[in-house]
Structures are given as C-alpha cells and as structure tokens.
Amino acid sequence: MSILPSSVTEIAHELPAVGVSNRHARATIFLHGAHVASWRPVGEAEVLWTSVRSWFAAGKPIRGGVPICFPWFGAHPTDAAQPAHGIARLRPWTLGEAEDLADGRTRVVFRLASDPQTEAVWPHAFELKYTVVVGAELELTLEVKNSGQEAFTFEEALHTYFDVADVRRAKLTGLEGARYLDKVDGGAERTQAGPLLFTAETDRVFAGAEGPCTIEDPVLGRKIVVAKAGSKTTVVWNPWVAKAARMPDYGDEEWPGMVCVEAANAGTERVTLGAGQARELRQVIGVRR
Ligand code: BG6
After folding, report:
1. Considering the chain, what percentage of its residues have pLDDT values greater than 70?
2. CA–CA separation, 24 and 44 (whole Å)
3. What's the pLDDT tens digit per position in 88-97?
C-alpha cells in the first residue's frame, strides 16, 4: 500500500477498496478487479450502476461499475470452462501511486501482472496499469504491456454500467449508421438506424465505432457523455426481463435502471502486441445538464 494523499482513504468492506473524495467528485474503487464501483460528481446523482444482488467476493465479478475485461471479451474462444470476460476482473490488483493533482482531481493507479495462476489460463507475460482520474469527469486508462518475448493477441473492454432512471425512455446517440453484430439474434450483422432506443434485450457489438456516445436520460434530465480513445469497438447491453431473471447476481426488477456502454477492442478488432510493446485504452465520462 502506498502513501495516500488526504483525498484517498481505505474502506473497510468484504473486499478492500479505496474511497476518493475531492472538491470535484467522490468515487469508490475496489482492488478486486481494480473495479470502479461508484462515481458521483459534486451536486450530481450517482452515475455508475451496481446491482443490489452483486457478489462482492474473491473469484467472482462485481455486477456493475466498471468491470475490466481482459484478455478475452465474452465467452472464452475455445474453452467454455473459462470465466466470461477474462481474468482481470476476478483478480486482486495492487494499489500503486495515488496523488492529488494541482487542479483538485485525484489520480490513482492500480496494477496487475501475469503470474503462474494467470499463465495457467492464458500463457503470456503481461503487465496491466490502470489509471483512474477522479474529477468532474471520470478518466479511466488501461495500459496493456507485453512483458514477454513473443507477440500476443488479446481482447479488452471497460465494461461500464451507467445508471439511468428508465432505460425504456433513454436513448443513446453517436452510433447512427454504425455496423454491429446483434448478439441477441445469433450475431446477425446489422446497421444502426438512428439513435439507439431500448425496447427489448439489447446486446450489440459495434465495429469501427471510435467516437463518443451520449446517453440521454430525460427522466433524470441529464446526458452522460462517454468518450474514448484507443478503442475500435463499442458494446451496448441491457439484459431486459428474461436474461435479468436468469442471472443470480442481478435483481429481477433492476434492468430498467441501467445500460452498459463499453469501450472495447473485441472480435475482429482484437489487438496484437509485440514483445515489449504497450498500448492504452481510455474511457472518459462526463455529465451534462
Ligand atoms: C456484455 C456482453 O458485454 O456483458 C453480454 O455483450 C453479457 O453478452 C454481458 O451478457 C454481461 O456479462 P457477464 O459475464 O458480466 O454476465
């Protein structure tokens, strides 16, 4: 544990976490998965959503906030026994540097490196560095470094769950005209016509979608702007009624209150890194009234 500035405190919980509180915002980040679970800009309601039924346990993913998916996205490509969305969200990360920035924001760094347990599942040497900047915007930067001798290929996502008053009345803009795989329809290829409206289970993997999206929430009277860099894939997900009922760590009635808008590199947009190479994936979240 590093020396923490006054804006950062350790929180007693079933899982270790840090709380960040500064003049711009408050946030809670679990070391388990380096999982940002809460971000509340001053004067604003909670922006991230977490299920009341979430596990908070070693070896299980947290349902909500910002799970980090790495080194694969969704089901493992060949081994159904492996956990969905990879291993990074299931592992304890270490807390690295934390500092107050001159403008009042707080920067906290988390790290995860390959070890014999990760190599048993994914036989590559890697170093992950996750930088969270808590301010009036939330900046999340995942750096993946290949610390081995040979190239590797991976998928990744910042799988952010956003809080909305009622997803049926929300709309998502920024993906108009983009091509997507519709996972609700066996991976059918489609084109997004107009803003994305939520009228049924939604699970879309947009390719070549590098721009920002905006979640318009007319009930809360706010817009959540989700910008990103180093990401070619955007994933949009809401489980709706039946899938919500099938998930043990998700309340049956909770689905209207959230939507995932994920900054990813997945499928045909997976990434190859040569020995010693590193790259960054970033998501920057802001709220407009
Ligand atoms: C989304 C996927 O990113 O994550 C969905 O596109 C999946 O198919 C969802 O259901 C949640 O995944 P998990 O493993 O956290 O239940």
Report:
1. 99
2. 10
3. 999 999 999 9
* pTM, rounded to two decimals: 0.97
**Chain-centre distance of CA 274, in angstroms?**
25
Mutate to test the pocket of ligand 1, among 53, 63, 159, 201 (most ligand atoms within 8 A of CB): 159
Q: Is 19 exposed, middle or buried (0-12, 13-18, 19+ CB in 10 A)?
A: middle
Could you read off the pLDDT of 38-58 as tens digits, one per residue? 999 999 999 999 999 999 999
Phi, psi of 70 (to 5 degrees): -170, 140
Residue 68's pLDDT is 99
Tell whether ligand 1 has an atom less than 6 A from the beta carbon of residue 203. yes
* Cα angle value 260/263/269 (rounded, 5°): 125
CB 146 within 8 A of CB 152: yes
**Can you tell me which atom of ligand 1 is nearest the CA of 249?**
16
Specify whether 159 is catalytic. yes
Could you tell me the pLDDT band of residue 210, with boundaries at 50, 70 and 90? very high
Angstrom CA distances, 122 to 81, 105, 210, stand at 13, 36, 28
CA-based end-to-end distance of the chain: 38
Question: pLDDT digits over 176-187, tens only?
Answer: 999 999 999 999
Q: Probe ligand 1: pick from 183, 237, 283, max atoms within 8 Å of CB?
A: 237
DSSP-assigned letters across all residues of 200-227: S-EEEEESS--S-EEEEETTTTEEEEEE
The CA distances from residue 139 to 10, 12, 25, in Å, are 20, 25, 12
Q: Whose CA is nearest to atom 13 of ligand 1?
A: 84
Residue 218 tokens, joined: 């007319």
Nearest alpha carbon, ligand 1 atom 6: 203
Among residues 159, 210, 216, 280, the one annotated as catalytic is 159
